[in-house]
Amino acid sequence: MKQHASSALFLILIPLTTILCVATGFAQQLQPASRSTTSVAPQQGIYLVFPFENSGSASRLDWLREGLEELTIQRLSAAGDQVYTHAGRISELDRSGLPPNARLSRASMIRVAQDLDADFVIFGSFVSDGKTLAVEARILRVSPVTLLPPVHESATLDSLMDLHMHLIWQLISANTPGYAAGFEQFSKAQTSLRLDAFEHYIRGLLASDDDPRLRELREAARLEPEWPDPDFAIGHAYYIRRDCSSAFPWFAKVPKTHHRHLEAVFATGVCRLLQDEPERAEEIFTSLQDALRNNMASGADLPEIMNNVALAYSRQGKSSEAQADLRRATELDPDEDDYPFNLGLLALRAKEFAAAAQYFRDASERVPDNVEDRAFLIVALERAGKKAEADRERDAANEALGPNALPTIRFDSHGEPQGQSWESFERIKTDWDTTLVQFEMEAPESAAGALPSAATDTPAAHVRRGRQELSVGKIEAAESDFRATLTADSANASAHRGLAEVFRRRGKLDDAVKELQSSLETRDSAAVRTILARIYLEQKKADLARAEVERALKLAPNYADAKQLLEHLQNAKPTGGPQ
């Protein structure tokens, strides 16, 4: 099963403030504005922040690379601007096959920003002699590409927090036409933090092992007990270990107005499923789902949430409700195999073997290398009395995946799995990419009234709306926004890429191929070439698919999706069809 879901093509953004007032409990890329009572400026675009480079020899200050990145994200967010989180940047680097600590050229920064449809890049550097700290920050406009003048600040090391606040205010006010907020107003929107608490927090986030991570984060929480960020990070560290009992009290500390509250809600719901408390899981996920639907102009049917609430329904015997949500999730994310697989489990459990086989076939076609999808397809065919077809599937799987690749799945005379429960096979979505929802939920409430119409009608704005609409299954609206982008900018790579997904979901694969090729003419991309390769596979054009994925890996040798697809192509049986 895939971890990236459809976010490899369409990122998702999320807001906060009041949207979860209905949620009873409690994903991560774009950070919403953590608003104070007064917004200091209308949003002019979306920012992507890179780590600040350590230009000196003081390696003990290396934590400031990501520390200044994170602090910049927090300052911008508090001021009312949309900004990608550290995790959002890391995810995009991963999709590009780049390590998280890669030191990028300005051209590479622009490329990453273009793939995320960000409007501005912020980067900088710092140097220290052990007593004083000097920091430089710059804004790089993505379109048209423009490097804006640098801003400098210096002070004693222990004045870092004040230094940085003044630096970012200068940077934004000097480079944003019509920016009216003075430094005092900007400062009032910010959270005052102790430097030592912030350092422990960043060191905790950067720690590679659980024990030092938790030790640093706990110290940050002790020093700043009213600061929710360490609370969420501690809860998430326990959540990753599936220590739900330890995670619950930390997630409970994350207030509804905090930008990680949605993720805390989602994780708590997952924990309720993991602890086999389906009633409580249902309550959490349905409240989350309703809150998103009621606060997004397009309405929000997010497949990860629908999948999990469907599993909560299923465990309570609410099969029709479970099937409806899983079918919707399957439609929303045409690349994910988990949703049809869970539908197959429901059908298999109900002894609807022919339907189960169709669902498992859909899952295995989406992700051909998933051995569990193949194994359950064979089981369903056998139980449907289609032994010859099951044998053909087994032979094909053995040839493609290896003779011992398929897991053994046995059922007793009553049709129950031997040695395992049905729940042990269910695929819970444990990660939720919270990046796409945010813009749509915040804009009507805060920025839309103050934002100049030109800022909401740019090609980038249309692309972002198109992605949001596509993520909730509004194909026609998405197509309209992508076409509006191309009317203004016929070479817009992101719009061609979005329109390709529209065509793909409508089954117009030739048109999707043309749009992806148009996207590549403007901006070469490993991700786009991998998507193109997948469509060629759907068209039974294995040679073309292999050529595209090989080109993708030349661009990004570590791109996981491309590597997995190439491995599949190398193991696949030749089609022999026309290319």
Structural commentary:
The chain is globular and about 75 Å long. Strands 1, 2, 3, 4, 5, 6, 7 and 8 form an eight-stranded mixed β-sheet that branches. Among the domains are: 35-190, Rossmann fold, CATH 3.40.50; 458-571, Alpha Horseshoe (Serine Threonine Protein Phosphatase 5, Tetratricopeptide repeat). Helix 26 runs antiparallel to helix 27 (560-571). It has 579 residues and is of the alpha/beta class. A hairpin with a 3-residue loop joins strand 5 (120-128) and strand 6 (132-141). The chain has helices at 63-78, 86-95, 106-116, 160-175, 183-188, 195-206, 210-223, 228-240, 244-252, 261-274, 278-295, 303-315, 319-332, 338-349, 353-366, 371-383, 387-401, 422-425, 437-447, 453-456, 459-471, 475-488, 493-505, 509-522, 526-538, 542-555, 560-571, and strands at residues 30-31, 46-49, 53-54, 82-84, 120-128, 132-141, 146-147, 151-156.
Q: Give the % helix.
A: 55-70%
How does the major sheet shape up?
8 strands, mixed
Tell me the CATH architecture of the domain at 35-190: 3-Layer(aba) Sandwich
CATH superfamily of the domain at 35-190: ABC-type transport auxiliary lipoprotein component
The separation of the N and C termini measures 29 Å
